[in-house]
From TrEMBL:
EC number(s) reported in the record: 3.2.1.35
Record's keyword terms, sorted: Cell membrane, Cytoplasm, Disulfide bond, EGF-like domain, Glycoprotein, Glycosidase, GPI-anchor, Hydrolase, Lipoprotein, Membrane, Receptor, Signal, Transmembrane, Transmembrane helix
Mode of membrane association: Lipid-anchor; GPI-anchor
Residue span, Serine aminopeptidase S33 domain: 537-641
Name of this protein: Hyaluronidase
Length: 715
């Protein structure tokens, strides 16, 4: 792809003192209303695929590369329990409208609709498409037959005005046309308002964890490019913005907005296309802050092709649509399409080539940059948006330090943010901070299905575990008497000053299942503040388990709560064939097991991984260490299997700081793995006296103290 559009990134000029000043700036922008936490806590920008392409694989033999998308859903009938649900007019209640031939359905006009019957019918549609009352996701009502403002029912929608006038005139034959029109408008708008509001209220009460809104709302009708491009500015007409203000009742009841930014061929690869999108998103962001409470998230609907064509968007227009929306603070981008995308082998193959090429690369570019800006500038407690909305700056990765490559058919970003890139983010972007309840949901492709524990109900249990562990560790064990942690000479050079105590003892414990082949059950413990908001963890500790254990072992041992209390995120999985994770025949090779760990970490947003691996799990961790050690901030093998399969030179090439743990009574795997692993140049050794193979079970106090000591030394 051309760097011209993907990497419009310049190095800002700033002195050291000004950089220090920026680092002391207030995190949240005072000019921007706070927003709710995103559906995926580490995903400031949600990417969703909502095109009806499900037939490409079974009928066309083409499996689309949709790895970049957090949600993959189809709008077609028969698909339920999706994280993005479209409610067409026949799917939710009794929506009044006129068919093309003029036949009235459910009264035709909102004035003639029965709200009582509509209420009675709505639960049926909700139960069919969103079966779990507590399910979390996006719920989009797609009612396009009429608009709630009288003046906007033009062209084919004029039937709603004419029928409204006929109804009033029939009741009042002596009224003047002007009087009839005025009353008809009042009756229509009041009824339309009531119908839409009551629908939203009932939907939210029955499915409270969905983000509810109407497709194409808000709109700003900036289509005057049709009259010529010469004087086109893209701005929303003032009269349309004023009309949008009349719909504040709707904006305040919605919990999400779903405007469209579809590009017509006439705007292809022009600055006019960028202005068209920019002003539509700006208007949505303006209205998202109407009223009290948090700003509503804006999810823009776009297409991978131009309207009414199969021509893919150019690289310029990827920036004009996706890049523009993300830079302005959109919470997500939803890709729409029609049946033509899967109509033939050629159409599926063409689309897949685009997904693997320009589209996939750009999505990875902009989503990664948005995550990095969120992490570095907003401390993962907000999303970045432009300080100056009309500036041409974008959340793009710097080509100086980053590259996007294809590996095994999958795209991957390499490189880490540099000081210049961070300075660029801080110069041009501000933080829209998150507030309110942190909710994490499931997605068919990348993320998880979480059932959060009622933390208030279990608070005494969790805090009891924490207090017991803390007392044992810090009062009874000022030093490890029955174990010793000795660093190698190279490891001593890596020691960092231990971080200050983490300012919270609150813990959030969740369980979830990661979809895939095989699906993976896991447990998660997070540090949270007093309001229950997630705190940016120091490191992310991924805990595997031995043959006789599962992820529950780490919860029952108190390891997960202890890690979270000390500021670390703990992620413990049930390996395939253990606990709640089903077995899989596809994990017979080292590479497949390495790929499974990579999928687990990537799907859960693990970027500062410390991998803890006892015994049998060495079948996964040791090959991962050999192949993907650059992805690890630390490694904690506990008498793992598989250490004899590698040469001294292979061990010596690995730079990952490692804590080698084993029990003094374990003369088999413990002694064997210790002999092989001490060839790692940056290693520490924790030998637990009087402990057997599962030494962390025999000596949990000493093990926990050694674990915390090691983590504190990692830079």
């Amino acid at each position: 792809m051309s760097r011209l559009h993907l990497h419009e990134w310049t190095k800002p000029v700033s002195s050291a003192s000004s950089e220090q000043t920026k680092q002391r700036e207030v995190l949240c922008s005072a000019d921007t209303k706070q927003a709710r936490w995103p559906l995926y806590s580490k995903k400031p920008v949600l990417l969703a695929w909502n095109a009806p392409t499900q037939e490409c694989a079974p009928r066309r033999g083409v499996t689309l590369s949709l790895e970049q998308f957090d949600i993959v859903a189809t709008p077609n009938e028969g698909f339920v329990r999706q994280n993005l649900t479209i409610f067409y007019k026949e799917r939710l209640g009794l929506y009044p409208h006129y068919e093309r031939g003029g036949n009235a359905v459910y009264g035709g006009l909102p004035q003639l609709a029965s709200l009582t019957q509509h209420y009675e019918k709505m639960p049926e549609g909700l139960q069919k498409y969103i079966r779990e009352p507590d399910a979390k996701g996006l719920a989009v009502i797609d009612w396009e037959e009429w608009r709630p403002l009288w003046i906007r029912n033009w062209d084919t929608k004029d039937i709603y005005r004419s029928k409204s006038r006929e109804m009033v005139a029939k009741k009042n034959p002596k009224w003047t046309p002007e009087h009839v029109g005025k009353v008809a408008q009042q009756e229509f708008e009041l009824s339309a308002r009531k119908f839409m509001l009551e629908t939203l209220k009932l939907a939210k009460s029955l499915r409270p964890n969905q983000l509810w809104g109407f497709y194409l709302f808000p709109d700003c009708y900036n289509h005057d490019y049709r009259s010529g491009l010469k004087n086109y500015t893209g701005r929303c007409p003032r009269v349309e913005m004023e009309r949008n203000d009349q719909l504040n009742w709707l904006w305040m009841e919605c919990t999400a907005f779903f405007p469209s930014i579809y590009i017509v061929p006439a705007l292809s690869s022009t600055n006019y296309g960028r202005l068209f999108v920019r002003n539509r998103v700006k208007e949505a962001m303006r209205l998202a802050s109407v009223g009290d409470g948090l700003a509503r998230p804006v999810f823009v609907y776009t297409r991978p092709t131009y309207i009414n064509q199969m021509t893919p968007l150019t690289e310029t227009d990827l920036v004009s649509t996706i890049g523009e929306s993300v830079a302005l603070g959109a919470a997500g981008v939803i890709f729409w399409g029609d049946a033509s995308y899967a109509s033939s082998n050629t159409s599926c193959s063409t689309l897949n080539k685009y997904l693997q090429g320009p589209l996939g690369r750009y999505l990875l570019n902009v989503s990664t940059a948005a995550e990095q800006c969120s992490q570095l500038v907003c401390k993962s407690h907000g999303r970045c948006l432009r300080k100056t909305p009309d500036s041409d700056v974008y959340l793009h990765l710097s080509p100086v330090v980053h590259s996007i490559t294809g590996q095994g058919g999958k795209l991957k970003v390499t490189g880490v943010p540099g000081k210049a890139e961070l300075a660029f983010f801080r110069t041009h972007f501000q933080c829209q901070c998150y507030s309110g309840e942190l909710i994490i949901v499931s997605a068919p492709v990348l993320i998880v299905q979480l059932d959060q524990m009622n933390f208030l109900r279990n608070r005494l249990v969790v805090l009891g575990l924490v207090l017991v562990a803390t007392v044992l560790l810090y009062l009874l064990l000022p030093s490890i008497r029955q174990g010793s942690m000795e660093p190698s000479l190279e490891a001593q050079k890596l020691m960092a000053t231990p971080p200050p105590p983490f300012p919270t003892i609150n813990v959030s414990i969740r369980t979830g299942q990661l979809p895939g082949d095989p699906p993976l059950f896991f447990r998660e413990a997070l540090p949270v503040d007093g309001a229950g908001r997630q705190i940016l963890p120091r490191l992310q500790v991924v805990l595997l388990h031995g043959q006789a254990f599962t992820s529950k072992t780490w919860e029952e041992l108190g390891t997960m709560a202890l890690l979270a209390t000390n500021g670390y995120q703990a992620l413990a999985m049930d390996l395939p064939g253990y606990g709640k994770s089903p077995d899989s025949e596809a994990l017979k090779t080292d590479q497949n097991r390495v790929d499974l760990l990579s999928r687990f970490m990537e799907s859960l947003g693990v970027r500062t991984a410390v991998l803890l691996s006892p015994s049998m799990s060495g079948h996964y961790s040791i090959p991962f260490l050999m192949k993907n050690n650059a992805e690890l901030h630390g490694f904690i093998p506990i008498a793992p299997v598989g250490t004899r399969s590698y040469t001294p030179q292979q061990y010596q090439n690995i730079q990952t700081p490692t804590l080698i743990v084993y029990g003094a009574l374990d003369t088999n795997l413990g002694a064997q793995s210790h002999k092989n692993l001490i060839q790692l140049p940056h290693h520490f050794v924790l030998k637990l006296e009087g402990a057997r193979h599962a030494c962390y079970m025999d000596k949990p106090r000493e093990f926990h103290q050694g674990l915390l000591d090691f983590l504190s030394k990692l830079k």
